[in-house]
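Example record for the data management plan.
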Amino acid sequence: MKYFGLQSQIRRNNANSVLILFMFPVVFIALTWLFFFFFGIWQSHQVTTEQPDNYNFIMDVNYGFIHTIPWILIGVLVWFVVAWYSHTTMIEKATASKPLERKENNRVYNLVENLCISKGMQMPKVNIIEDNSLNAFASGINPKTYTVSLSRGIIDKLNDQELEAVIAHELTHIRNRDVRLLIISIVFVGIFAFISEAIFRSMRFGSLSKGKKGSGGAAIVIALVLALVGYLIASLFRFALSRKREYLADAGSAELTRNPLALASALRKISSDPTIEAVQRKDVAQMFIENPQAGLKKSAFSAGILFATHPPIAKRIEILEQY
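Corresponding structural encoding:
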């Protein structure tokens, strides 16, 4: 297993961040245009059975698109800005994490501090999740918000070397800018999820549920299908980023501690009980060292792998033991 170096990985993640920032608006724009295209086809068939004039049809589609897309992009921008600056509060509420004071656990602070000093890193905040299961995650977008969160169980049940390896794994996420990249993807996927849910509720409780199947009903159905397509595309991209970053953070931990077997041992213990009861959101779950959601089943089939937030922990252990 190779670790490509801090600066190389930072550049790669910065490039991926730019790619994501570019890709999501493009997906929004494309799906918005497709909405007017398919809605126009539906309307033309309602008015006449004759083949519509292609030029006039495209002009009508473009007219609706051009007059609508600015408002959609403004809404997306506002959502992104609000989510970007409120992500810390959102993550803390979603994971039930809270600050861990040095006086409460000097052992944890010493491990974090020593690792940071060895790499010239600024000390991140340290949070604790009051859960006896074993899990951890890193979050934040800049030095002021970088945080390493550890469950009560992982602190109490791992020895110093194992806990140091887990902390090194999370610090690698911070050093590589993984956390910023992941938060960007979470924000945008959340937009698609919100739109899909809002449209579904409209279908369930709005005009369609009252038997009105006119143009409004058709628009809602088309919008829901396209929103789900956008959500699927965004989720697949997000899951792929999430799986890859775990391998890189494992390698970074091995490099930082010079003890890959300690992380392998820690992962083996984590795999026995990673469930954090407070974590209900799938987007936040992917931030952890192992998926913390109860009842998680990993599929051996390709579709299951595509939608997995984490690579198989047995594979990660195998790679670390061969490091």
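Summary line stored alongside the record: The beta strands are 97-99, 125-129, 136-139, 147-151.
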